[in-house]
Amino acid sequence: MNSSLTLRTFNFLYFCLIAIFIPFLPVYLNEQGLTPSQIGFIAGTGGIITIIAQPLWGMISDHRKTIRKVLLLLLVISSATGYFLFASSTYGLLIMFAMFTYFFLMPIEPLTESLNFRISEAAGISYGSIRTFGALGYGVMSLFAGYFMTYFGSHSLMYLFAGIALVGFAVSLAMPDAPVTAKPVSLKSLKKFLGNKETLLFLVLVFISSVPARMNDTFLGVYIRELGGSTDLVGQALFLAAGTEIIVFALSFWWLRPGRELTMIALAGAFYFIRFFISAWVTDPHLLAYLQVLQLLTFPVFYSSAIQYLYRIVPEEWRATGQTVLALLFFGVSGIVASYAGGALYEALGGQTLFLAISAMSFAGMLFGLILYRIYGTRKQAAD
Fold first, then answer.
1. Using CA atoms, how far apart are residues 59 and 331, in angstroms rounded to an integer?
2. What mean pLDDT comes out for the span 116-144?
3. What is the Cα–Cα distance from 160 to 21, expressed in whole angstroms?
4. What is the reported pTM?
5. Do 271 and 212 form a contact (C-beta atoms < 8 A)?
6. Radius of gyration, alpha carbons of the chain
7. CA atoms within 13 A on the CB side of 121
């Protein structure tokens, strides 16, 4: 099988798993009778586990100079933990298997993104042409899982999750590994990277912008259900969001120019603000689902730009670890704040207040992005 085809297929399958785990886990937990604060506790604690797991597996990958072999191990274990997670009903078992799944499933994302970027560079193709299939998988499975859960019950997700994970494992056996850099791994270069002022400010920007996005990811399905929507409507909302990503990722070679990353990140922040502010005032669950089409101008623009900007400033030999740091902030640290704070805010003041709060945070992220553009962006564009 063609190497780029296997990588695209793997992206499709892995993001199918993410589509089941990230947005439908809160819905599944809600179906098991958990409160928003309990859901937030599980998601937040999972974020803590992610903080530990992603750097650990990223450094193992860099040290061993292989991504594919690490992915194989993580996938086969994730298939088992995900199966038992969606087979469980009691609070204690849900916490335990959710933590195991966070530990083994979530580190796959930054490793996959690093593999996508490095393989695309080596092959002379656009990153978006590969990542598009991840968005496609997320969109298709979001729609399918919603209907699957509605017609076969919440526990049916255990078969769906484990089956896809095992197919992904089989595909990854034929997948290419990332090109190995000739530069040796150096702690000195990593300290220089993390000690750079531009790097630290960029990571702060990622954190500020990702907290509201993660709150939305965690509680959107719960809010749709509260407004009277069904689980298949949750799937439709996620499908609309992911479907629009496909277009943006596919055309990233056209709209994402080197040196313009901070501009695009600020633009994404502006549309995040608009999207969440409108969500706060919507009372029709169908209208809220349709509003997710604004994903077109938010997550794929933000994340693609952030990855490209990161790769412009990170030492070559620490790219997998650098990608892990980015994912750590977007899906780990921010997820902890989003889940704990979001769950408490949702339970105390309701969904409308939650979305008003995250719209304000997105506005702050937009302003910070514009400040960094004034400091670093104009200089980089002049240099290019």
1. 18
2. 81
3. 11
4. 0.74
5. no
6. 19
7. 16
Q: Cα(227)–Cα(287) distance, rounded to whole angstroms?
A: 11
Burial class (CB in 10 A: 0-12, 13-18, 19+), 63: exposed
Confidence band, pLDDT 50/70/90 cuts, at residue 332? confident
Are 234 and 292 in contact by the 8 Å Cβ rule? The answer is: no
Cα–Cα dist 274/239, whole Å? 20
The torsion angle over the Cα atoms of residues 39, 364, 301 and 244, rounded to 10 degrees, is: 50
Residue ranges and CATH numbers for the domains of the chain are: 3-175+184-383 (1.20.1250.20)
pLDDT tens string 271-323: 999 999 999 999 999 999 999 999 989 988 998 888 888 877 776 666 666 66
Per-residue model confidence as pLDDT tens digits over 181-191: 544 445 565 56
Helix axes 299-313, 231-250, angle to 10 degrees: 50
Q: How far is CA 3 from the centre of its chain?
A: 24
First CA to last CA distance, the chain: 38
Q: What is the mean pLDDT of residues 245-270?
A: 83
Nearest to 180 by CA among 43, 63, 297: 63
